[in-house]
Amino acid sequence: MKLPKGVNCAANQVRYNLGDRGIEFDLVPMMNKLEIPLIAYAPVARGDSFGTNLTKQKAIKEIAEKHQSNSFQILLAWCIRNGQTIAIPQSSNITHVIDNVKAAEIQLTQQDLQQLDSIYPKPSMKQPLALW
Questions:
Q1: What is the pTM of this model?
Q2: How many helices (H) and strands (E) does the chain have?
Q3: pLDDT higher for 99 or 50?
Q4: Domain 11-119 classified CATH 3.30.70.270?
Q5: Which one, 45, 61, 64, 121, has least CB within 10 Å?
């Protein structure tokens, strides 16, 4: 915002997923205040070891089963849960693309969200941006 014409920022694209929640401490509240949309890249952390571990998490599998979906859909549904975050899940597989679209229909319950928060809590202090 301090850069020349920074106030013209139309959106902010950063890494954001259930395991990379550091932006929730200060960046997301600031963006909400300024009405700047969040574009989440790596919303399911796929392609890295952390993403693989997320999809193997027992609680995520249980929530997926409850919603008749898969772990990737739950991770994506979590990322876009507020209806204001735009997610960019990468896929060249038509089945995965269809699954990604269906993830938008999943309404996680308060119990689901509390369960996920207990395993992957919101940050309690400022953190550097996740770049990997």
A1: 0.89
A2: 6, 3
A3: 99
A4: no
A5: 121
